[in-house]
Amino acid sequence: MVKRNLAKFNKTMGFQISHSNRQKRKPFLGPETDHDNDDGINGSVIGRLLSPPDVAGYASWLLKHPSAWSSFDSVMKEAKGKKVVVFLDYDGTLSPIVEDPDKAFMSAEMRAAVREVAKYFPTSIISGRSRDKVKEFVQLNDVYYAGSHGMDIMAPPRAVKSCDKKGNEGGFQPAKLFLPAIQEISLELEDKIREIQGARIEDNRFCISVHYRQVPPKDHRILKEKVKSLVENRPEFRLTEGKMVLEVRPSIEWNKGDALNYLLNTLGFSNHAKDVLPLYIGDDRTDEDAFKVIAARREGFPIIVSSIPKDTIAWYSLRDPSEVLAFLLRLAKWKKS
Ligand SMILES: O=P(O)(O)OC[C@H]1O[C@H](O[C@H]2O[C@H](CO)[C@@H](O)[C@H](O)[C@H]2O)[C@H](O)[C@@H](O)[C@@H]1O
């Protein structure tokens, strides 16, 4: 049985897989109650040993979300003669998930790969981090940056079409009016979680992350309850969950999917243009909003980064940031040749 599962797994990894999931996609089921164990921290490398049940589960998940790497040639056939526009998430996609959010550095190889991709395709990074922070990590000029889950967008000067009231070229900040309230709730959160060992707050400008990766598991529930109760009393905010992080954000209808559409427009591509194929790579729940936008277009490449089976509407998958790196290099090479 184990042998058969392993053989199936190898076959799945090695051969091209049909993309029949595109017709039979399951809807995204929304946030689960706990999101503690799905990020493969310390395990997110190619060649990680999977236990037999993992192997079988991952192999059958791969049939629904084929590897964008293994099926590269057939996937990219669709892109011939069309304009591919690249969107990348940061944490868990361009950098591995690490204990300390301040140390989620991107490797020099990954930076070079993104630089190479940006030479051939319009490229944007859409992150939950503050825009300044993600730019500090990425250190590239020729890409667009959208921070705070898309609530803080800045285009590079070469593609800019518009200025905001202060003359900031290409700037778009739909949650600007919330800034004073965000600062207030940030102080309240600090106060609420002060006593919980390991809990930390990250100021992402238009949203706030409450991290619990370093909180002892016995205290997770209490931390979540404290944050939830605070947000429940502030209707101008809502709560989303990421990888061992709670994210407090303004209750506006704006997410990574809206940012993707905004950037497509800024680049001069109509949202419905048939010759434009958005490619989005991301690993977390907030990335599902961007996958949803691509799925609604029925064309493009929504790619989830995961080394374990998970609920997603992405059509394709990559195991971890090292596969993302390999995929990006191949994408640039494909265009070059
Ligand atoms: O949209 P993203 O770029 O993926 O940002 C989402 C959150 O990523 C960061 O937190 C996650 O990565 C950390 C570093 O690996 C890890 O320690 C943490 O547990 C993860 O949740 C970032 O720190 C958050 O502010 C972002 O919202």
UniProtKB/TrEMBL annotation:
Region described as Disordered: spans on this chain: 20-41
Xref: Pfam families: Trehalose_PPase
Pathway: Glycan biosynthesis; trehalose biosynthesis
Reactions listed under catalytic activity: alpha,alpha-trehalose 6-phosphate + H2O = alpha,alpha-trehalose + phosphate
Keyword terms: Hydrolase, Stress response
Listed EC numbers: 3.1.3.12
Keyword set includes Hydrolase: yes
Top-rank lineage group of the source organism: Eukaryota
Any one GO BP annotation for this protein: trehalose biosynthetic process
SUPFAM superfamilies in UniProt: HAD-like
Names of the cofactor(s): a divalent metal cation
Annotated signal peptide: none
GO MF annotations, alphabetized: trehalose-phosphatase activity
Family according to the record: Belongs to the trehalose phosphatase family.
NCBIfam families per record: HAD-SF-IIB, T6PP
Function: Removes the phosphate from trehalose 6-phosphate to produce free trehalose. Trehalose accumulation in plant may improve abiotic stress tolerance.
UniProt name for this protein: Trehalose 6-phosphate phosphatase
Species annotation: Durio zibethinus (Durian)
